[in-house]
From TrEMBL:
A molecular function (GO) term: acyl-CoA hydrolase activity
Lineage: Bacteria, Pseudomonadati, Pseudomonadota, Alphaproteobacteria, Sphingomonadales
Stored InterPro entries: Acyl-CoA_thioesterase_PaaI, HotDog_dom_sf, Thioestr_dom
Superkingdom of source: Bacteria
Record protein name field: PaaI family thioesterase
A Pfam cross-reference name: 4HBT
Record-annotated Thioesterase domain positions: 57-128
PANTHER family per record: ACYL-COENZYME A THIOESTERASE PAAI (PTHR42856:SF1)
Length: 153
């Protein structure tokens, strides 16, 4: 494996570690996988404790998972700084009941200061439940300054 590929892989595992370390994920148990530069996948189970009054997943869950998937797809291309979400647009295409959901994130454009990413939520049967597009900006926060960012995984 070329040294740059080894560094890229270490960066991906460090981002996955950072995701696991985020306190919010205690409320929304899920797992992140950086598949390749510009692509991520988050898997999670929807349970009744995330439902609104009509017994389907609250929009908070849609936003959190799609924002995270698009964010990490974009941050996979940035090895020195933490990105920040500056805007995110959502489209809800289907209510989510209980079950396993996958959020797929993909980098769309930008490589300097502002990045655009998109995400979609897929149910186990392959049906789309939502999609979104976000913009993410480089911050002044070095990734290495964050406790959860561990290049060793």
């Amino acid at each position: 494996m070329p040294p740059e590929a080894a560094g890229e892989t270490a960066h991906f595992r460090a981002l996955e570690s950072l995701y696991r370390a985020a306190p919010i994920n205690a409320l929304f148990p899920s797992s992140l996988e950086i598949l390749e530069p510009g692509r991520s996948r988050i898997t999670f189970e929807v349970t009744p404790d995330t439902f609104h009054a009509a017994r389907a997943a609250h929009g908070t869950l849609y936003f959190k998972m799609m924002d995270d998937a698009a964010f990490y797809a974009c941050n996979s291309l940035v090895s020195d700084r933490f990105l920040l979400t500056t805007a995110f647009n959502l489209v809800f295409t289907r209510p989510i009941r209980e079950g396993r959901i996958t959020a797929e994130g993909r980098w769309v454009s930008g490589k300097r200061r502002v990045f655009v990413g998109e995400a979609r939520l897929l149910m186990d049967d392959g049906e789309e439940a939502g999609r979104g597009t976000g913009t993410f900006m480089r911050s002044h926060i070095p990734l290495t300054s964050l406790d959860g960012y561990r290049p060793g995984g």
